[in-house]
Write a structure and sequence with these properties.
By secondary structure, the chain is mainly alpha-helical. Strands 1-3-2 form a three-stranded antiparallel β-sheet. The radius of gyration is 26 Å and the shape is elongated.
């Protein structure tokens, strides 16, 4: 890993990429989303403060546990500019995300359990299907797929017919 001399206070996008492990395109994306910032030189080249290294590490760690970028941006906006996030910052912010992650884990568990039911049936039109068609009113009458007419005379008429009749 390339070492950055202590006297250098700004990094090029290549140096930031090499040190952080993030692709240059990812760094540009993070900047476009307001997660990190840079200044432009007279030659219009990006220069990042050394704090960007810790911010990128913070972003990538939060992404790995499923935190949306908008939430990460909001968290980083609470920190003073040009200061690296500290262990205390991470502890405080990650504690607020814990409940959200716990809810997602519960939701994924429920989806996993219902997925088995849908695979067993095969029609994806179960009355209890929460995956593909949770409000399926026709599933209450019969299982399986069928072609529905574009217009029906009565709601009870489930038989296919020519469009417009």
């Amino acid at each position: 890993m390339p070492q950055i001399p202590e006297k250098i206070h700004e990094l090029t996008v290549g140096q930031l990429s090499a040190r952080s492990g993030a692709a240059v395109s990812a760094l540009h994306f993070y900047e476009a989303k307001g997660l990190i910032g840079s200044r432009r030189t007279a030659g219009n080249q990006r220069r990042y403060g050394r704090d960007a290294l810790r911010r990128v590490a913070f972003i990538r760690a939060a992404q790995r546990v499923g935190i949306p970028l908008a939430t990460i941006r909001d968290a980083l906006s609470e920190l003073p500019e040009e200061r690296t996030p500290t262990r205390e910052d991470w502890s405080r912010l990650s504690a607020t995300w814990r409940a959200e992650l716990d809810d997602r884990i519960k939701q994924l568990g429920r989806l996993r359990d219902h997925l088995t039911d849908c695979i067993g049936c095969g029609c994806l039109s179960l009355e209890t299907c929460v995956l593909s068609n949770p409000d399926d009113v026709f599933g209450e009458r019969m299982a399986g797929s069928r072609l529905l007419p574009l217009r029906r005379e009565t709601p009870e008429d489930d038989t296919p017919g020519p469009a417009g009749k």
